[in-house]
Amino acid sequence: MYWTRGHIIGRGSSATVYAATSSQSGEVYAVKSVKLSKSEPLQREGRILSSLSSPYVVGYKGCDITKENNLFMYNLLMECVPGGTLSQEIRRKGGRLDESRIGFYTSQILKGLDYLHSNGFVHCDIKGANVLVSENGAKIGDMGCAKRVNLVANDLDHAAEPIGGTPAFMAPEVARGEEQGFPADIWSLGCTVIEMATGGSLWPGLTDPVSVLYHVGFSGEGPEIPNWLSGEAKDFLGKCLRRDPKERWTASHLLKHKFLRELELISNGKEIQESYSNSPTSILDQGIWNSCSLGESGVQDSPEKRIQRLELCSGNASWTFDENWVTIRCNNNENIEVEAESCSGSVSDSIIVDNLTELRSCGVAEESWVNLLGRGNSGRFVGDEAISMWFMTQFLTHYS
Ligand SMILES: Nc1ncnc2c1ncn2[C@@H]1O[C@H](COP(=O)(O)OP(=O)(O)OP(=O)(O)O)[C@@H](O)[C@H]1O
After folding, report:
1. What's the CA dihedral at 144, 146, 147, 148 to 10 degrees?
2. Given this model, what pLDDT does residue 270 score?
3. How confident is the model at residue 385 (pLDDT cuts 50, 70, 90)?
4. Among 160-164, 322-326, 391-395, the least confident range
5. Is 32 annotated as a binding residue?
6. Which protein residues are within 6 Å of ligand 1, measured from CB?
7. Secretion signal: which residues (predicted)?
8. Annotation marks residue 125 as catalytic
């Protein structure tokens, strides 16, 4: 397939997403690109997406390898969902959504989950930042953490698939590193409903992902359910946020819950769609394209200097919904990669050090590692190449 790369429309912790135009049809796609040498997780995501087809999951359009500026890039082409993420939509609407809109998006995310689960996939990272919205509603995106469940045994192949996701949205059994099956997505959906209702932190007062993990896993508590929600909505959340995964309702069961059924009868989707299409902040607006320019900084400094710069960039840990992110990854060889990125485009850096001893010898206080991890909405734990549970253990040991 021939296509032309356009503007950046989003950045995640592992990849950059651009608009792309098909040379033949002129159709606009979203293309997620990474250096070929680091593309194994994206290739895996592509393989999963290519096996799926649902109006509630972002559509697969193909993949290829390009050579640009002497770099080989792996590209995953997807359907372009023009409204950005659900988290961005929440901010556009002033920090929280009204209940009918919450029900509208929840029902579509659930239909996507029902589809994934009945095809044997656990998404493993449901949250507002991984749901894409358009005038037609919501679609589940970012299948980068997804894993297959053995439907016959109704169990995970633990050896093959590490636990992944975003700490604040993780189910208790996931935070404890025990299991990550279909019910884990349902807990994360409950957290996403609360995100839609509050726009704020699910765990106020907990400012770094390690303390969130510890609290979720061992405190016996769930996130606070906003008081202003109706009884039906609270009941729905209660079914999603049961601490025992066996007691959580399934996606197909939740689709029949009175919270969604009643809303569907009242709004029939129309009012919500009209309201959405009036939004002036679609990512396809030219103004947004024009304002989006991201610089790449050089990487000539020594690892020491670059780690120190990252430490300065990271500031205080804050578990908020800002778009800045800093990620620390550890691969199987225990090389540690530290990256910093600013959505405004002013910082872009990445360094690799061999082990924790080297990170220590660079003079970065261990507290700052937590800060580095805690910044932004993607202080997250994902597959092999990303922050491993091993690395989390280091933090837990340090933290406790
Ligand atoms: N199909 C799409 N259509 C429109 N925008 C998209 C699409 N896919 C991704 N984006 C944008 O790109 C951003 C990054 O995408 P995505 O979350 O898939 O990347 P990632 O590197 O896997 O993220 P992370 O690992 O941090 O969760 C999204 O937050 C969204 O703004």
Report:
1. -120
2. 55
3. very low
4. 322-326
5. yes
6. 9-15, 17, 30, 32, 58, 78-81, 84-85, 129-130, 132, 141-142, 144, 378
7. none
8. yes
Give Cα 310 distance to the centre of its chain.
22
pLDDT at 100 over 70: yes
Higher pLDDT, 333 or 154: 154
Instruction: Say how far apart CA 66 and CA 72 lie, in whole Å.
Output: 6
CA distance linking residue 281 with residue 91, whole number of Å? 11
Query: How does residue 246 score in pLDDT terms, banded at 50, 70 and 90?
Result: very high
- Ligand 1: nearest atom to the Cα of 166: 27
Q: 3-79 with 86-262: one CATH topology? A: no
Beta bridge partners of 18: 8, 31
What would you report as the CA-atom Rg of the chain, rounded to the nearest whole angstrom? 20
CA dihedral 98, 104, 108, 110 (to 10 degrees): 70
Interface TM-score (ipTM) > 0.85: yes
Comparing 341 with 239, the larger pLDDT belongs to 239
pLDDT at residue 34 in the model: 95
Domain 3-79: give its CATH code: 3.30.200.20
Average pLDDT on 293-318 reads 37
Active-site pick, 64, 98, 114, 125: 125
Residue 46, pLDDT above cutoff 90: yes
Q: Where are the domains of the chain?
A: 3-79, 86-262, 286-399
Evaluate whether 188 touches 171 at the Cβ level (below 8 Å): yes
- Number of Cβ within 10 Å of residue 28's Cβ equals 16
Taking the model in full, what pTM does it have? Answer: 0.71
- Amino acid present at 308: Q
Of all protein residues, whose CA lies closest to atom 10 belonging to ligand 1?
10
The DSSP bridge partners found for residue 155 are 150
Q: For residues 212 and 201, what is the distance between their CA atoms, to the nearest angstrom?
A: 11
Topology of domain 86-262 in CATH is Transferase(Phosphotransferase); domain 1 (1.10.510)
- Residue 250 contacts by C-beta under 8 Å, 6 or more apart in sequence? 117, 182, 183, 186
Q: Is 131 helix (H, G, I), strand (E, B) or coil?
A: strand
